[in-house]
Design goal:
The protein is of the alpha/beta class and 136 residues long. The protein has a 5-stranded mixed beta sheet, sandwiched between helices. It has a two-stranded antiparallel ribbon with strand order 5-6.
Length: 136
């Protein structure tokens, strides 16, 4: 099953994929323009890569030990729900907490320094999702 993760930011959308269900790989970055154009780009990738499920990074607000849905997470959820109307695929939300920090640390310590941070963050989200699913 081909999975694609999206790290939805204000200006960019990081994209990562996994066709093995074991390893996530950074794919690309979509520069946000309008929902219509963003959704068309996602649909093009979904078709091209034969994606069967989307994983949407959800930016929980962390307060103490509690995760909660804050304003940014609500924006991402509205965006994902609108995307689902265009890109007719099942999707899951997955906690993206610290994905950018983890991706930056990885890029700083590896030879993949030219990988865009947004795509690397999407790969962190997708890899965490895959790891959790394999533990279930």
């Amino acid at each position: 099953m081909v999975l694609m993760a999206l790290d939805v930011g204000e200006k960019r959308i990081g994209v990562a994929t996994s066709d093995s269900g074991i390893v996530a790989m950074p794919h690309s970055v979509i520069l946000r323009k309008s929902k219509r154009e963003d959704f068309a780009q996602v649909q093009r990738l979904v078709t091209e890569l034969q994606v069967e499920r989307l994983i949407i990074g959800l930016p929980y607000s962390l307060s103490g030990h509690n995760e909660r849905i804050g304003p940014q997470a609500q924006r991402v959820m509205r965006y994902a729900e609108a995307l689902a109307e265009v890109v007719k695929l099942p999707f899951d939300y997955f906690d993206e907490s610290y994905s950018t920090v983890t991706a930056q640390q990885y890029l700083n310590s590896s030879k993949r320094a030219k990988t865009p941070i947004d795509a690397a963050a999407a790969a962190v989200i997708l890899q965490s999702y895959l790891d959790k699913k394999s533990d279930e």
